[in-house]
Amino acid sequence: MRVDVITLFPQIVEGALSESIIARARKEGRLELYLHQLRDYALDRHRTVDDAPYGGGPGMVLRVDVIAQALDAVRAMDNRKAHVVLLSASGWQFQQATAYEWSKLERLILICGHYEGVDQRVADYLVDQEVSIGPYVLTNGALAAAVLIDATVRLLPGVLGNEKSIQEESFSESSFELEGPQYTRPAEYRGWRVPEILLSGHHEKIRAWRKEQAHLKATRLNKP
Questions:
Q1: How far is the C-alpha of 17 from the C-alpha of 149, rounded, in Å?
Q2: Can you give the C-alpha Rg of the chain in angstroms?
Q3: Contact predicate 171/96, CB 8 Å
Q4: Neighbours of 155 (CB within 10 A)
Q5: N or C: which end of the chain has fewer CB within 10 A?
Q6: Is the CB of residue 150 less than 8 Å from the CB of residue 22?
Q7: Exposure string (b/e) for 92-129, b if CB count within 10 Å is 16 or more?
Q8: How far is C-alpha 118 from the chain's CA centre?
Q9: Cβ-count burial of 21 within 10 angstroms (0-12 exposed, 13-18 middle, 19+ buried)?
């Protein structure tokens, strides 16, 4: 899978995706990650990428002409069909189902917002989807890009050592519940004991207990 990120802060994405599982996926060629500095596609010698909003208001807005030029150039770097996404606080909220959908793509292009926002014509005419990682505002879209790439790439075949863990984890495609509580050694610490059912070795009872806990505790308390 090829992922291109157009951003003012490529070093943020590079830093986040140069460790652990995603780093291994890159090394093995399962993820082709290319980072593009938006300023390289500016139309003037000052490398200007933003301007004041029409109608007034605080902050600066990323220009549609600069983003369009960057997108055209990045598209031309590979002939695989690309799904183009604008990262925006006002976009559709990213979910695990979106990650599964994206993991089947050959190529993904992410455009990262910054400053006060992005010219609306980018969302209206240049991209296939506008996505947010949550109902809050970040300093820049590069942070969100790293999250989206991580969530998607870990679903690619061969990236995780144990594919079964994908099916059983929270927010999996087959489940709308959070995972139940997990424990490991020691069985007792400071008087805090692991539930006896988990030490019983009775797999069917353990599976039923975990399902009950996931429903009663995690889902009901954390996701009312």
A1: 8
A2: 21
A3: yes
A4: 19
A5: C
A6: yes
A7: eebebebbeebbeeebbbbbbbbbebbbeebbeebbeb
A8: 19
A9: middle
The pTM of the full predicted model, rounded to 2 decimals, is 0.85
3-state secondary structure the chain: CEEEEEECCHHHHHHHCCCHHHHHHHHCCCCEEEEEEHHHHCCCCCCCCEECCCCCCCCCEECHHHHHHHHHHHHCCCCCCEEEEEEEEEEEECCHHHHHHHCCCCEEEEEECCCCEECHHHHHHHCCEEEECCCCCCCCHHHHHHHHHHHHHCCCCCCCCCCHHHHHCCCCCCCCCCCCCCCCCCCEECCEECCHHHHCCCHHHHHHHHHHHHHHHHHHHHCC
Pairing of strands 188-189, 192-193: antiparallel
- Can you give the pLDDT of all 224 residues of the chain as single tens digits? 999 999 999 999 999 999 999 999 999 999 999 999 999 999 999 999 999 999 988 889 999 999 999 999 999 999 999 999 999 988 999 999 999 999 999 999 999 998 778 999 999 999 999 999 999 888 899 999 999 999 999 999 999 975 655 555 555 544 456 677 889 999 999 999 999 999 999 999 999 998 888 887 655 655 55
- In this structure, are residues 107 and 3 in contact, taking their beta carbons and an 8 Å threshold? yes
Q: Which amino acid is at 11?
A: Q
Question: Is there a contact between 178 and 213 (Cβ–Cβ < 8 Å)?
Answer: no
- Judge contact between 209 and 195, C-beta under 8 A: yes
Residue that is written with structure tokens 């003037």 in the block: 44
